[in-house]
Amino acid sequence: MEERRRACQHGVKAINGLLSCGTMGGDIVEEKGTLVAEHYHDPTDRKYSRQIRQAAPEAFAAFMAFDEAALRRPGMAIPRKYVELMALSVALTTQCVYCIEAHTKAAAEEGATEQEIGETIMIAMALRAGGGLTHGFQLMKHYVHETEGEGAEG
User: How far is it, in rounded angstroms, from Cα 149 to Cα 133?
Assistant: First the structure.
């Protein structure tokens, strides 16, 4: 146990009587003397869609219909493989692990190649980085406004 404590990136802390170590993939938690992983994102979390559907049936049905129409309706002008590659690019920027998993599977089923997946990753990265730069324009504008007045543009 002491070796595990030293290996923790964020240190061990007590949570509700359990020892917890924050890690990239989830927490390593000691329960009754056994180390177990508690992942924040777990594929079995999808089972909770039943409760969401029961709690808000009309909105849930409307979302599912919208999702189907936007991504899978017959007669779409954009080929299905490209829809899935676009969905992957968006999933990377929104960082939805469930979307990444589902749309990776769908893209592979539609014949996406490793090169197409790699290029999709790089496109998403470039756009996300570009968003950081263009938001930097806003930050700099506010900074210049605060420090030099409105008329100071370079």
Answer: 22
Tell me which H or E stretch contains 24.
Answer: none
- pLDDT tens per residue across span 84-103: 999 999 999 999 989 999 99
Element (H, E) at 52: helix 49-55
What are the structure tokens assigned to 93, written together? Answer: 């920027």
Task: Tell me how far apart the alpha carbons of residues 43 and 38 are, in angstroms, rounded to a whole number.
Answer: 12
Which token pair is 103? 């749309």
Q: Tokens standing for 21?
A: 């170590």
pTM, 2 dp: 0.67
Provide the token pair at 32. Answer: 């009754």
Neighbour order of strands in the sheet with 18-22: 12-15, 18-22, 27-31, 34-38
Contact call for residues 93 and 128 (beta carbons, < 8 A): yes
